Each structure stands twice: as structure tokens, then as C-alpha cells.
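Entry details:
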Amino acid sequence: MKILVVGSGGREHALCWRVRADRPDADLYCAPGNAAIAEIATTIPLAADDIGGLVAWSVANRPELVIVGPEDPCALGLVDRLSEAGIRAFGPSAAATRLESSKAWTTELLDRAGVPIPDSATFEAPGDAHDYVDDSVEPLVVKADGLALGKGVLVCDTPDEAHAAIDAIMVERQFGDAGASVVVQERCFGPELSVFAICAGTSFQIIGSARDYKRAYDDDRGLNTGGVGAYSPVADADEAILQDVADRIIGPTLQAASDAGCPFTGVLYAGLMLTEEGPVVIEFNIRFGDPEAQVILPTTRGDLVAAMLAAIDGDVTRVDLAPDGSAAVCVVLASGGYPGSYETGQKIDGLDALPPGALAFHAGTETRNDGIYTAGGRVLGIVGTGPDVPAAREIAYAAVDQVTFHDSQWRTDIAATELAPVGQSKAAVPS
């Protein structure tokens, strides 16, 4: 079977790894891929947002399945174009991608459907947003409306911070065109939870839960990032919580999207806050998260490829894809200074003899004649797997101790709330 994975990060490495595990004989390709993906798939020098090039390659080579990893190609219509060409592609249409690419559209959709969300307002003019802040008494969250690589959400403790966030997004355009409008929301409090479902229209299966870490440094200090760690499963995501999420959030959202003329096919990632009143939607993403994919995919039973093909056919219940009862913890090794300025080109040592149960998913690396070097902010997702979160965490941090490159940084508290912290031989990065 010929399969193409689109993307180049840790998520796409995890997807290729899982496809290779489920379908060892597959003719696997990845565009553009990365240093580690090239070891298990044939890489193609086409960028993930080169829609014309990807469609032309697919028409010429006729893969039986295209798996779209990142959100941008979906927003640019890759799945639509491939479907028009008779290529089976797993991912949402451009219209359905608005669940992630337009927070304003999604907020209105969820509000009409009665899905629990924070009190929200959308603004296209900075002055109107500033007036709203002046009239508010609650702590607020200010969000760039469009896609901002997971960094366009600013959590504000004070009105002054909310005003500064509006200016950063709408006036200074720190997130580019994503900041043409903003959504200002009441700030909710409680533990965060990510729930993942494979979907086809109004049909879906929950395939796992995870908790991720966005702030750069220990104890949730520092700037928001694209994600610096995650673990699965989450202890407080019990059967009752997940059923509530299915009944009050995922099901109604899929029905609302279908009613709006944009039925959703793909992986729906519900970013939730577990408040005293129950789960509340903080955001939706339309793909596997990164680094959440690195802990969900190693802990899910079933044939991922068969499940994706079933979703394209409109019946996700045909294939059982569900948590397998194991656990995984991912610690992201990043370049010093991330998510601010950082240097690349540092040689990475220690990848050739990871502890049993450890995996290394590459996010920002490149191959040179004498080894693997850093080539991005998030460099590696070091994953420990085991029968439970404490065991997986111990393996993950043992592997982190082994893998080294100059001026690396990481959080030492990933999954620490699930157990007594394990000892670390390396210091946390200061804020």
C-alpha cells in the first residue's frame, strides 16, 4: 500500500512511526519529512504548504492514502484538491478547518449549538476590544482569530495585560494576519485536558486523552510555546468525564459543523478546561497535537491506517481504535532561548542507545555527514512508555539525561502532578 504523510515535525515523525508499525510493508512517503523520518520513509522535497506540488505528485504517483499532519495545508484546501483528483486524503476540508483556523467562527458555531464555552466577544477594531476590557471584571484571555502556530493565545491576569495583548495581536501584528481580529474570553480555571477523536461527519470515536504543557519553563513560567511536553492517559479523565465530553461537546460540535455545510472528517482535538461546572471548550484543533501525538499514538491499539480509511468512507465505527491501557510521557528538548531567539546547528549525541521503552521523535533536526544536528526551536520529543505514567516518566527522563546538545532546554516537571517528582540530574531553566 502506498501512503503519503504530509509534514515535517515531531507529529509527522510519530505518524510515520505508527504507520510503519501497523503496516511494515507499506510504501511510505513523507513530504518534506525530516532527518529521522528519512530512515523509515522516502522523503519528498515538497513543503507542506505547496498545495499544487503535493497534488501533482499525488496524481502522478496515486497513493492509496494521504495523511495530512499540520493544519495549514488543510486550511489551504489540500484535502479538497486531493479529493477532487480522486485521491483519498485523511483530514478536514478547508471549510471544516475553520474549527481551528477561525476562533471567531468557531465561537459563534459552538454558542449556537449550546456547547459549553467561556463568555466570549469578537472584535475587528482594537478600540472596541479595549472598551470591552475596560467594562470587564473577570480575568481575560485574548486570542488571535487565525492560525498562529499555537502561540496566539495570551492569558492575562490583569486589565493592563489584556490591553497589552490586544495591542500585541492587533496593532503590532506579532502573529501576522492571524491578528486581524481577536476573540476575548472570560478566563476559566481548572486543570486542562485534551481529548482526541477520529471523526467522519457526525460519527466519531474517542481515541485518547492527554495533558500538554505550553509554557516554556517549570511551574508554568515563561512564554507560551507550541508545546514542550505531554502525557497520556490523564488520571482525571475518567470514563464519566470522557462520556460527558462525547455527549455535550464532540457530538454537538460535529452536528453543528455538519448543519453548517462543512462536515468534519479527521482528528478533532478538543482542548478543554475541567471547571467546577464541568468541561468547557478552550479551543479546537483539527489534527493531532504536537507533542500530544507523540504520547497518543504509542498508547493506542488498532490499525491507524484502517481507521483513517474508514473515516474517509464515513464510518469510523468499522475499526476499533482506542487506548491500549499503557502510558507515555513526552519531554521536548528545545534549543536554548525557545520560543524566543535561539541558535541551531548543534550536534546531538546519545540518540543511538536509548533506554528500553524510550522513543525519540524528531521535530527540528537535520542530517550532516558526521551526525544529527539541531535545526529548529523544538528539536526532539523524548518519549518514555510504560504500564503507567510514573514508569513512563522515569524512562522519559532517563532518556533526556542521555541525549545532549549544546544549550538545550527542557522542563523537568512534565507529569509531575501524577506522582512524586523523580530526581533529575539537570537543572531547570530559569524564567
User: Anything to note?
Assistant: The longest strand covers residues 265-275.
